[in-house]
């Protein structure tokens, strides 16, 4: 049985982890370990999937930021990745892109969105 103290403890743990709860019930938290092999692998996967569309040819360089939405054990993770890639169809121009990768199991993932990362308006 849950007590008031255990509910407060759960809220405290979530706040300490830097996560916030969205309207859809997902926990959202920044990617603090962008150099992690799994995060870099997801970025490379997103670029490869984009290249398969045939619109242009990008060469993945690195993920440099982003955040994760966690929907629960059975619903997986959605990674919003800010990444850098070389556009080989535009004389090797280096560009920043954003990708959304949904991973529902360790080996099952799909890129749901990919595009240029627009500078923030001030």
UniProtKB/TrEMBL annotation:
<dbReference type="InterPro" id="IPR046350">
    <property type="entry name" value="Cystatin_sf"/>
</dbReference>
<feature type="signal peptide">
    <location>
        <begin position="1"/>
        <end position="24"/>
    </location>
</feature>
<dbReference type="InterPro" id="IPR000010">
    <property type="entry name" value="Cystatin_dom"/>
</dbReference>
<comment type="similarity">
    <text>Belongs to the cystatin family. Phytocystatin subfamily.</text>
</comment>
<dbReference type="InterPro" id="IPR027214">
    <property type="entry name" value="Cystatin"/>
</dbReference>
<protein>
    <recommendedName>
        <fullName>Cystatin domain-containing protein</fullName>
    </recommendedName>
</protein>
<keyword id="KW-0789">Thiol protease inhibitor</keyword>
<keyword id="KW-0646">Protease inhibitor</keyword>
<dbReference type="GO" id="GO:0004869">
    <property type="term" value="F:cysteine-type endopeptidase inhibitor activity"/>
</dbReference>
<dbReference type="Pfam" id="PF16845">
    <property type="entry name" value="SQAPI"/>
</dbReference>
<keyword id="KW-0732">Signal</keyword>
<feature type="domain" description="Cystatin">
    <location>
        <begin position="31"/>
        <end position="107"/>
    </location>
</feature>
């Amino acid at each position: 049985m849950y007590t008031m103290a255990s509910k407060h403890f759960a809220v405290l743990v979530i706040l300490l982890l830097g996560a916030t709860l969205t309207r859809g019930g997902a926990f959202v938290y920044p990617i603090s370990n962008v150099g992690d092999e799994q995060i870099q692998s997801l970025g490379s996967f997103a670029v490869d999937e984009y290249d398969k569309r045939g619109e242009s040819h990008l060469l993945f360089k690195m993920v440099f930021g982003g955040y994760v939405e966690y929907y629960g054990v059975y619903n997986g993770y959605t990674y919003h990745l800010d990444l850098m890639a070389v556009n080989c169809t535009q004389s090797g121009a280096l560009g920043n892109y954003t990708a959304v990768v949904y991973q529902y199991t360790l080996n099952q993932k799909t890129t749901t969105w990919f595009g240029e990362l627009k500078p923030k308006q001030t």
